[in-house]
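Q: I have 421 residues here and want to know how they pack in 3D. Can you give me a structure?
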Amino acid sequence: MPKTDGGSPPHIGNFVFLAGLGQSLLALALSAIILVTSYAFFAPELSAHKRAAGSDAAVPRTFQGSEFQLRMGAGEATEAGELRLTALQEGEDNRAIATRKTSFAAGDYAFVEYEVRGRNAQQAVYLIWRSADTPLKVSSMPLHWHGDHKGTAFLGRQAEWRGRITEIGLDVYGELRGQPLVISKLALLPGSGTKLLDAVWFEWTAFRSWTQKSANFLEGRPKHGILSPTLAMAAWSCLALLLLAGVYLFTGSQNRVAYAGALIIPWVVSDQLWQANLSTQLEETKYLFAGKGQHEKHLADWSPELYEYAQYLKSEVLPEPGPRIFLLHDSEPMTYTRLKAQYYLLPHNVFNYDRFPRKKAARVGDYILVLGTVAGLEFSPDAKALRWQGRSLPVKLIDSRPDGSLFKVTRRKKEQREPSP
């Protein structure tokens, strides 16, 4: 590093900067080669699957889309050997199912490659299968979306991917958005380090559904994921820093730019993964909400049934704002469903806390809104009371729907526990 005068900050010239940048890129390249090679050969997930494999010489199995039969939805096979879905079965979840009978040992195959065109980011597509061990159970695994690119998914982490597979197929949810969904082919492949790397990269670049944490975090897929991108970037950076430190110990020369580059470049790469996900979400948001009024936006949002239920209560069931409403839900306080329901019920005076009523706080004329069903909370029509954990609260049933039930506190009694049965 250049010398400084009088304790002033060191000046980094162009040559020093470029040399440091080159050192950091070289260290990161060596770090990537070491980590990628080691992971491809020694990944614990793949090693565990290979130990349980039924054969070391399994031949890849490819199923053309036209080989699948539609069990739900509408479509047709094409001359190119594809299955063209033109309509999903309407219902609570628009859905299509296409399967075919088969017979093979699950342990022979660690990966599935899938080619599906015309899919959009909000469609959920699952690989489904039945096994000879549990013929009545349908197991599933999500297949991520990254445009019309061919996808690769790792089956080795699926506890139910075992035994002899007797039926395999795809389960589709969502909307077609005016274009058919084309299933080109499904291929099952034996375990290999190359395919593991393909699966990891596809998983990192595939679209992640936007959550409340997405603005600040690049989350992995803990349930079905292979390797967290954040953990991988941290390992990449740390090994590069160790390599640079090793060079310094042997040569006595160090460049602060090199250390900074080894930290910043992996962060930039991870940020680009986040930005790609953000860009896809932006396009989805435009599609869902652009040009719509507030009411139409709520109907297009997640959980539109919750919004419709709240509007029904406000317009047809509840009195003018004023009485207290105790909102009960089978969850911990301040969950997404609770907060959205409270927001949709504004300007009503909603107390959003518990699973069960707070009997000491309830007064005659208060309302109790039970969203869905709450385990352990029951309404007795004969006694005209809500009962839970040996307690009861006299109420009148005002309205009951699958989305929830609304009660009104009718009278107040001194709290006492009911006798045990």
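Q: Anything worth noting?
A: The first strand starts at residue 61 and ends at 64. The chain has eight helices and 18 strands.
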